[in-house]
Structure formats: structure tokens, C-alpha cells
Design goal:
By secondary structure, the chain is an alpha/beta fold. 24% of the residues lie in helices and 19% in strands. It has two domains: 336 residues, Alkaline Phosphatase, subunit A (3-Layer(aba) Sandwich), CATH 3.40.720.10; 76 residues, Arylsulfatase, C-terminal domain, CATH 3.30.1120. Strands 7-6-5-4-8-1-9-10-2-11 form a ten-stranded mixed β-sheet, with helices on both faces.
Length: 444
């Protein structure tokens, strides 16, 4: 694919608002799609989205971990602004995405959208955090951070990997393979709502652990010798099949052309735990190195966007909310205080030469304290060990690491000593941003 600099005018078919689908993979490795260069895992459906849309080669999740990444995605705001620093405590009813925050579905419902979600929630198990109270008209899935792919255990808490599946708020079991059921539930939603504008959030838990896959998917990656990667690869194949079924359902109903589809991962792959590949990036899930936060990101809207292009300027998952509001022909409220930007002018309008973000930030205060900042091609990474002192933690700063991502995408050549002025400038910029954030709301 090549980068095409041309102007495409966004128009809705027959004046209809576009349908909107966000497909989120869970712990997908940066290099584990055909469109990203993968050779051992077939992903034809996801590849087709790239062939018919835009691939963002410098795209980021807002966090290197599941729950905070989802919080940022659905609010369009850096999740540290409301204390959602890292994974929620699924056994704590007070832990969840702040009810003061407005989510995607709540923005879209007043614009005439019927909203639905299928799959993994991971933003709070208590009733006040439930998807049906956060802007979704329909919900099929589970509330916790992960799930067994073959079974449930009746009576198990929502936080458990064996919890019952919810349809709306009624609980029950499922049969077969969970990834298949998520795909089928998405198709069912589309089938019932294809005659009106809809917003569907398809949140797969694949290929997040536990590593489980049925024989029919394992057979399709039989040439992979590494046993762990073989199961992981089979899980990616299952997800790709489900995505293919979603695309086929849109075609069947003759609504694919005017459906805006986003595909991305919530964070980088956890290389040691699943043998995902983030090559050529350094790091993995939990890191603020590129391998933890740079993710596959594809957008298809056949009616309005260019096809088969690569967009190389940095973007972030927070951009999806302003983009879908604009695609719906509406204006983002000023009091939304969104950190994302509408990407449409940059890929198909009057901002082709512009830069969506001059600076992108990450902060992840967890077992260690890690943060990074990207400005242009420069990226500064700083990590600190946490030492318990009784009343509070003492942070022991490590030496800053400075990389030029244009020449060193793998973050191997630390230029901090050679470029001290750039280090100081980026530290100042990040510190100014950090002052606008809250401390983590739980577990810190």
C-alpha cells in the first residue's frame, strides 16, 4: 500500500447517517495480522478492511492495559483525567469507569442511533457501571476482564472467568466457542437494526488468555511449531472469522458501503504469556515502550474514505469518539473536553497536510511508574521503581531514554546523553500535562 495525498469528500449515502462499528481485539500483537506483515496466522477479513480502507501505521492505545485503554476509548479522554489508571478491581463494587464521564453511546443516542455492545466490558461489575446504564440499548457479553472460551459456572461472580453470560441483564450460559458467539451476537444485532442508524461496539476477549481454541481453528495454524503460539494463532483466526461474518452480514443487508468500521487492539501483545509478536517494536503489554501502546488501527468507510492507503502521522484511540460524532454529521459538545480529534479532515478532507497531534502522552502508575511522551519523531521514556516508605511510595527515577522513532522504531539507541535539550523539553512538556491529571482512583 502507498500513501495517497488526495482529497475525498465525505458524503452520506442518500443523506443517511452512517452505521458505526468499533471492533476491539484484546491483547493482539502488533505484528500478528497479515496486513502488519504476519506470515503464520491468516487474517483475510481484517486484511480486507485494510484493502478497502485506511491503515494508521503510528496508532496508539491510551494505555498498555485492558481496562484503562477501554476507558479512554469510550470517553475520548485520557483516562488518567478521571483516575482510571489501570485495571479495575472486579471484586470491588466502587471500582469502575466514573459515572461522571459520558461514553460514546450516550453521545450517539440523541442523534438517533440505536446502540449495542457485545463481548468484554471490564469497566465495572456493579449495577451503576453496567453497559445498559452507560449508553448502550443492548448488551450481550460479560462484565469482567476475561472469560473461559468454552464454559460458564452458574452462580459465579461477574468478576470470575467462569461467570455467566449476560443478555441485557439476564444471565445464562453459552455453548460452543465464545469468540464465535460474540461474532454471532454482533450479526444478530446488525440483522435486527440494519434498517436504522446503529452503533455497535464489538469487544472481543480474543486473543487474551486463557489460551483456548477448538480443533477447527487449530488446524488452520497447524504449521506453527511453537505450541503456545499455535493456540494463540488459532484464537486470532477465530476472531478474524467472526469479523468476516460481520462484514458479510453488512453486505447481505446492503449496508456495508455506509458503515464506518474501526478495528484496533486495546494494547500490545503480552509476548511472554501468549507468544504474541510485537515485532519490530520493543516491549509488550504493560510497557510504555512502543510494544505496549502502539497498536494495529484500521478504518473502513467505503462510501466516504479512500481505500488501500497508509496514514503515517501519529493518532490515538481517543480520536475515535470525535471522528464518529463528525461522521454522524454532528458537533462534539464543547463541554466534552475530549483529548481526541476528528480524523476525517486529515485522511479525506482539508487537513491532509496537517498533524492530528503535536504531542501524545502515556502514564501508567502500576507496579512500577512508567511514562512516555512522543513529539514528532522523538519519544522520551522514563520509568521509576516504587519503594514503600510507610505512608506513601517513594519513586526512584531511572535514567531517561530518548529515541528517534523514524530511524529507530525498535527503541534500541538511547540518545538521551547526546540530546539533553530535547530530553529537558520533553520532560517539561510531560510534567505540564501530568499536572492536569488525577492520582489513580484505586490500588495505588
Amino acid at each position: 500500500m502507498i500513501l495517497i495525498l488526495a482529497v475525498f469528500i465525505c458524503t452520506h449515502l442518500n443523506g443517511q447517517k452512517p452505521n458505526i462499528i468499533i471492533i476491539l481485539a484484546d491483547d493482539l500483537g502488533y505484528a500478528d495480522l497479515g496486513v502488519q506483515g504476519c506470515k503464520d496466522i491468516p487474517t483475510p477479513a481484517i486484511n480486507s478492511l485494510a484493502e478497502n480502507g485506511v491503515v494508521f501505521s503510528n496508532a496508539y492505545a491510551s494505555a498498555p492495559q485492558c481496562s484503562p485503554s477501554r476507558a479512554g476509548l469510550l470517553t475520548g479522554r485520557y483516562q488518567q483525567r478521571f483516575g482510571h489508571e489501570y485495571n479495575i478491581n472486579n471484586t470491588d463494587d466502587s471500582s469502575g469507569l466514573s459515572i461522571k464521564e459520558k461514553l460514546m453511546g450516550e453521545y450517539l443516542q440523541p442523534f438517533g442511533y440505536h446502540t449495542g455492545m457485545v463481548g468484554k466490558w471490564h469497566l465495572g461489575v456493579a449495577s451503576q457501571f453496567h453497559p445498559l446504564r452507560r449508553g448502550f440499548d443492548e448488551f450481550w457479553g460479560f462484565l469482567g476482564g476475561g472469560h473461559d472460551y468454552f464454559k460458564t459456572l452458574p452462580g459465579t461472580k461477574a468478576s470470575d472467568f467462569l461467570s455467566e453470560i449476560q443478555k441485557w441483564e439476564k444471565t445464562g450460559t453459552f455453548t460452543g466457542y465464545l469468540t464465535d458467539r460474540i461474532g454471532e451476537s454482533a450479526c444478530d444485532f446488525i440483522d435486527r437494526n440494519g434498517n436504522r442508524p446503529f452503533f455497535l461496539y464489538v469487544s472481543f476477549n480474543a486473543p487474551h488468555g486463557p489460551l483456548q481454541a477448538p480443533d477447527n481453528y487449530l488446524q488452520r495454524v497447524s504449521r506453527i511449531e511453537d505450541p503456545m503460539r499455535k493456540i494463540y494463532g488459532a484464537m486470532v483466526v477465530g476472531m478474524d472469522d467472526a469479523i468476516g461474518n460481520i462484514i458479510n452480514k453488512l453486505k447481505e443487508l446492503n449496508i456495508e458501503e455506509n458503515t464506518l468500521i474501526f478495528f484496533l487492539s486495546d494494547n500490545g501483545g503480552p509476548v511472554k504469556r501468549t507468544h504474541a509478536s510485537n515485532a519490530p517494536l520493543r516491549g509488550a503489554k504493560g510497557d510504555t515502550y512502543e510494544g505496549g501502546v502502539r497498536v494495529p488501527f484500521i478504518v473502513q468507510w467505503k462510501a466516504s474514505l479512500p481505500k488501500n492507503i497508509v496514514y503515517e502521522k501519529p493518532v490515538i484511540s481517543l480520536d475515535i469518539l470525535p471522528t464518529i460524532i463528525a461522521a454522524a454529521g454532528e458537533t462534539m459538545p464543547e463541554n466534552a473536553h475530549a483529548d481526541g480529534v476528528n480524523l476525517l479532515p486529515y485522511i479525506s478532507g482539508d487537513q491532509l497536510q496537517g498533524v492530528p497531534h503535536a504531542v501524545l502522552y502515556h502514564r501508567f502508575f502500576y507496579r512500577t511508574s512508567e511514562w512516555s511522551i512522543r513529539q514528532g519523531d522523538w519519544k522520551l521514556v522514563v520509568s521509576s521503581d516504587r519503594v514503600k516508605t510507610g505512608e506513601d511510595d517513594l519513586l526512584l527515577p531511572q535514567k531517561p531514554e530518548l529515541y528517534n522513532l523514524k530511524s529507530d522504531i525498535g527503541e534500541t539507541n538511547n540518545l538521551a546523553l547526546k540530546q539533553p535539550e530535547i530530553v529537558r523539553s520533553l520532560e517539561k512538556e510531560w510534567n505540564n500535562w501530568n499536572k492536569t491529571l488525577l492520582k489513580p482512583a484505586w490500588g495505588y
